[in-house]
Amino acid sequence: MLLAIGAGGGYAASAQSREGSIGSGVAAPVPARAPEMPVEAPKPPVPDPTDPPLEPGIAMAPQKVGTGKFEITFPAPAGWSTNANASNEWKWKRPGTSNNTYVMRIEQINSQDITIEDAINIRIERLRDEQDDVVIVDRGAETLEYTYRSNEGNARHSFMRWLDLDASGQADVEIVVHGRERDVPGTRDLIRRVAEGMQGSGGGPVG
Question: For bias kind Pro residues, which ranges apply (predicted)?
Fold first, then answer.
């Protein structure tokens, strides 16, 4: 008899223990022991310089760079300063403008023996490797339009164009104009005018 009571008491205690462990109320998530750090929200771009925007239709003047059969002539912004970054690369900037406003660069790439399509592919790959917040806005057969964040944190809007001046199937010249969003009408107009007016040595094709 005592054995039976003991067994019954044990069952009752066990049942009471299980009921006590069920609990009540609405289930809630349990915090992780080592939760991941929250992802930092993207920072807004640094404010643009307040210089007036580049306008379409600015005055242009004939410019000549390169030597011998690699000499090229084209219209360039009148009064802008020129700086040779290398023997085959030049930059134009309006004197007195702030950094991260607008600037034009021209590079001769005759010796690289690449097609315009390959040149565009290489440029896109480099942009994505080297710059932040790159967005390809438009890509044409010989053009590229994109936005990115500069090393100083400014939002930039750029246009590029490649020219095959001797119809060889290879890219001869690379043109790029960088600017702010407010400069887009002017930078788009500038690169178009430079490219359309570019000629090789003696008024003919390069090479």
Answer: 41-52
Reported as a single tens digit per residue, the pLDDT across 152-201 is 999 999 999 999 998 889 999 999 999 999 999 999 999 999 999 999 87
Chain position carrying tokens 């964040």 = 149
Strand partners, 145: 138, 159
Given CA atoms 181, 187, 192, 195 in this order, what sign does their dihedral have?
A: negative
Rounded to whole angstroms, the Cα distance separating 76 from 184 reads 17
d(CA 206, CA 167) in angstroms, rounded, equals 9
Cα dist from 165 to 71, 88, 170, whole Å? 11, 16, 9
Q: Are 119 and 108 in contact (CB under 8 A)?
A: no
Residue whose entry in the numeric block shows the structure tokens 């008024």? 203
Whether the CB-CB separation of 62 and 68 falls below 8 Å is answered with: no
58-63: which pairs have CB atoms within 8 A and are 24 or more residues apart? 58/186, 58/190, 60/193, 60/197
The pTM for the full model equals 0.77
136: tokens are 């390809």
